[in-house]
Amino acid sequence: MQKTLSILGSTGSIGRQTLEVAEHLGHRVLALSADKSIKLLEEQTRKYRPALVAVFDEKAAGEFESRISGTDTRVVRGMDGLIEAARESGADTIVTAIAGAAGLQPTLAALETGKRVAIANKEPLVCAGRLVMDTARKHGAEIIPVDSEHSAIFQCLHELRVTTAGSTSHDLSCAENIKTIKKIILTASGGPFRGKTRDELSKVTPEMALRHPNWSMGQKVTIDSATLMNKGLEIIEAVHLFNITPEQIEVVIHPESIIHSMVEFTDNTIIALLSNPDMRLPIQYALTYPDRMPSQIKALDITELKQLTFEKPDYDSFPCLRLAYKAAKSGDTACAALNKANEEAVDKFLKNETGFYGISDKIEEALKGNLCT
After folding, report:
1. Angle, in degrees to the nearest 10, between helices 13-25 and 38-48
2. What pLDDT was estimated at residue 371?
3. H or E segment at 118?
4. Are 129 and 236 in contact (CB under 8 A)?
5. What is the pLDDT of residues 132-181, one digit of tens each?
6. How many CB atoms lie within 10 A of CB 179?
7. Distance separating alpha carbons of residues 189 and 209, to the nearest angstrom
8. In terms of residue numbers, what domain contains 272?
9. 106 cis-preceded (ω within 30 degrees of 0)
10. Do the domain assignments include residue 135?
């Protein structure tokens, strides 16, 4: 069945892949948004012919309007424009893939429509997880996670939701859905620096950190993967999405990136989701849930798997993960402080204004006074 989509952050890695999946599924795109990448946004607009495009940067919006003059697409600007694209596009599904904390207001606006919201940006749940989940419940909106790890958990819990709730309930945090969960196991590739010592890591450059072995992602997410902060943010996300405690979340390093996460139940059985690493798969599931459709990704041939390895994280070499656990245990204020400090520190690292450990140092400083004792 054809669906209609609003894609917030369409020029980023997730946004581009969402458009590819939408085309594969035959879905119609009603709205797009971007910050400054107007050349690519123009290409997307001319190809998919959305009724509405939001451009966050005011100067870029003016240039974009000139570029697409003569088309039927209406252009809106700034945060008000993003909110309009989220709320008033008429789409069945809103995909929120705006990087950073700037995605919070549009995500809340999308949830207020009471429709399906495929959340691909971590920051809204990290900075304001309780508000996001409360807004979804208040307006009857569906939250479908797009992160490969949270999508894997969501899928592992699908049959549990059917049998315990009597229907395919999308409220992952309701008591009936979580009462048999003992632990969630978040897998991490380990990034480009798995096994490196603190001395080795103190010398890494942004160019080195941007070479992820398994995933193709935006710069910010790739650096977060290198520091393991990406996994730290996912811990905070999981706390809110699945209504569990940080103590119920275990991170394991799994360099093959074949198992995308696992759920351990109270009877000590574990359900895992396996596939080749390709973000188009969790994106497609978020768009088609509860149905499954043929996908574009290469099928996993388990007879070709030589090994699946797992190891504990090195909290000394990757202190961001330890700091994220502390913030998750302390609550919203600490999580927001952690996220803001990380965004600022990663930006400085990418500009060669601080070193690799300058990121965790800034976060640790920002958390002082925000952690519960």
Report:
1. 10
2. 72
3. strand 116-119
4. yes
5. 999 999 999 999 999 999 999 999 998 665 433 333 345 554 445 567 89
6. 10
7. 14
8. 175-277+295-367
9. no
10. no
